[in-house]
Amino acid sequence: MTTRKNPLSNKLFKNSGTKTKKKTKRTSLYVLLIFIAIQLSPVLFINSTYDYFIDQGLDPDMAQAATSGWLIFIAMGIGLAIALILVFRDKKFFDIWKGKKLGIGWTLLWGIFGFLLLLIGQSLAALIEFAIGIEPGSENTANLVSIAEVVPAAIFAVVLFGPIMEELVFRRVIFGSLNQVTNFWIATAVSAVVFAIVHMEFAHILLYFTTGLILAFLYQKTKRLLAPIIAHILLNGYVMLIQLNMDKINRFIERLEQLEQLQFVFHLL
């Protein structure tokens, strides 16, 4: 006995699948456009915000830092909220991998392990950069730390809003899309180059490539964007914590050195 094919049914299912793919592509495009808007929109409000803080009695340097801090916080917060609404309305947005996703527990562990990998990878990349004559340190990080000292709310943008938004864009939209039509290495390289362009630090392209490589590996390994998000949040939080407390850390090191010197003197006596 043969089963009759239903052309109408097949056409409907085919159209449904096509519509789903188109919706996901649109969502990816919208997320990318939101990210671009986050980068550009603060320019529209710089002068008015700066004038407001000047009127409040802040000196020009403080007013500039306050302007940057609040505009980063507001733009990133609003942009991320809109992006998350769009993403979670598209049920197929994260379904780009074949095979079963890792469980939440293992994904959390991979996220924490990924943070350790990032520390090791960035340290090795920094050593290589130093060996070829590239000065260590990030001007972008230094600027963000200076801003966070004036506007603590900016810490949320750097440690929480930024990593989530950047993983949506660089890992899901750029890397995830390219990985489906090219391969892991090309997709990682392109996403890393774009990441460096956005941060305006071309000298540290090796550092960004290493970071992108590890985060892409976490995404592919777990098949969940949560893993690179966790690793990215922990990395930014760690860097911000160290930088904001650098003076205390230096004083602590000096005290340790003084204690060692005293112990040496007592030993001689």
In a nutshell, what does this entry contain?
This protein is mainly alpha-helical and 269 residues long. Helices cover 81% and strands 0% of the residues. It has one domain (15-268).
How would you characterize the overall build of this protein?
- By secondary structure, the chain is an all-alpha fold.
- The protein has one domain.
- It contains ten helices and no strands.
- The chain has helices at 7-40, 46-55, 60-89, 104-131, 139-150, 154-181, 184-199, 205-222, 226-244, 246-268.
- Mean pLDDT is 84; it is low at 8-16.
Q: Rg to the nearest angstrom?
A: 23 Å
Q: Helix proportion of residues, in percent?
A: over 70%
- Shape estimate: globular
Strand content: under 5%
Q: Give the low-pLDDT segments.
A: 8-16
Number of beta-strand segments: 0
Instruction: Note the quaternary state here.
Output: single chain
The arrangement of helices and strands along the chain is HHHHHHHHHH
Contiguous helical run count: 10
Structural class: mainly alpha
Straight-line N-to-C gap = 104 Å
Q: How many separate domains?
A: 1
Largest sheet: none
Overall mean pLDDT score?
84
Write the layout of secondary structure elements.
Blueprint: H1 7-40, H2 46-55, H3 60-89, H4 104-131, H5 139-150, H6 154-181, H7 184-199, H8 205-222, H9 226-244, H10 246-268
Helix pairs in contact: 1-3, 1-6, 2-3, 3-5, 3-6, 4-8, 4-9, 6-7, 6-9, 7-8, 8-9
Labels describing this entry:
single chain; 269 residues; mainly alpha; 10 helices; 81% helix; 0% strand; globular
